[in-house]
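Long-time lurker, finally posting.

We've been working with Dehydrogenase/reductase SDR family member 11-like 2 (Homarus americanus) and I want a structural starting point before designing mutants. I don't trust myself to interpret raw outputs, so I'm hoping someone here can both generate the structure tokens and explain anything notable. Sequence follows.
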Amino acid sequence: MERWSGRVALVTGASAGIGAAICRFLVDKGMKVVGAAREEERIQALADELADKPGSLTAIKCDITKDSDVLGLFASIKEKFGGVDVCINNAGMSHNHSLLEGTPEEWREMLDVNVVGLCLCTREAVASMRENNVDDGQIIHISSIMGHQVMSYSTLHFYSATKFAVRALTEGLRQELRGLKSHIRVTAISPGVVKTEFLSRMMKDKEKAQGVFTNKKCLQAEDIVSTVVHVLSTPPHVEIGDIIVLPTE
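Top reply, 14 upvotes:
Generated this for you. Predicted structure of Dehydrogenase/reductase SDR family member 11-like 2:
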């Protein structure tokens, strides 16, 4: 991780769960981290907590579903830091309805966050890297095991479709970067169930979500941080396409 010290990382969905845990680790390792989310105050509270660490955390309010917010986010990063070296697309969400019960509004929101927002952040991150001749940059998509298989949980079928899209986008970007003879790397990390706020937000029921976590030993946010560290720690000539991380149980 030493080569990333002093460099700039963007983490979306940074206010809680996996995103907040990634921010915490990267700041501890000396990176200048920009945390983006709708709940800016939660990121700022984390930034205040990490004020004495080797790196820094800058909180920026950003609704990933709004193109203007995303473009403004990258303009702010350029003005303050010059550009990005690492982009971690962690923002993601789901509604708790099956395909037969869902609404177009819910589907569009999931697509805007999980697919379109991810693509726009990636496009802008790569443009920033190329403008600044960052040829060892890293893009990481926090995806899901549901991007590899359609499971029997009907309320997650549309979410699964968005993560299948992320899987295709990861490979498509890798091919485009290779065509440009760029050494910017792109990786997807596909976890199983992680104990975060994701399920309680989806179900709108903290108690029900807690039941999922107590039924078996699930992954923790720190487990996904360890996987991010593995990706960032590989030599520049090594590109990891996708990592599946599952609870043992």
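Before you design anything, note these points.
The chain has a mean pLDDT of 94.
The CA atoms of residues 62 and 107 lie 20 Å apart.
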